[in-house]
Amino acid sequence: MTLDLLPIGQRARIVAVDWRALVDEEAHRLQALGIDVGARVAIAHRGVFSGSDPIALMIGRMTVALRRAHARAMTVEAL
């Protein structure tokens, strides 16, 4: 399943990222934040407007706002 479909509060591990689907600068920024293959993540919240953007992603002790299009490029497995 892709990260944008992960239920709120469900923990998961990122197993693949389609970096080609992202702009280079955005991909580098996400990697610098630790959002990459092997990272354990969970969805904290989803926006209420315009297709549920942004998604609040918990990674470690950080919460990062992520666009739905970025989350769609990441494949996760539930833990």
UniProtKB/TrEMBL annotation:
Classification lineage: Bacteria, Pseudomonadati, Pseudomonadota, Alphaproteobacteria, Sphingomonadales
Keywords recorded for this protein, A-Z: Iron
Source species: Novosphingobium aquiterrae
Name of the protein: Ferrous iron transport protein A
InterPro entries cross-referenced by the UniProt entry: Fe-transptr_FeoA-like, FeoA_core_dom, Transcriptional_repressor_C
Entries under Gene3D superfamilies matching the protein: 2.30.30.90
Statement: the UniProt record of this protein carries the keyword Iron: yes
Residue span(s) of domain Ferrous iron transporter FeoA-like: 1-78
Stored SMART domains: FeoA
Pfam families hit by this protein: FeoA
UniProt keyword Iron, yes or no: yes
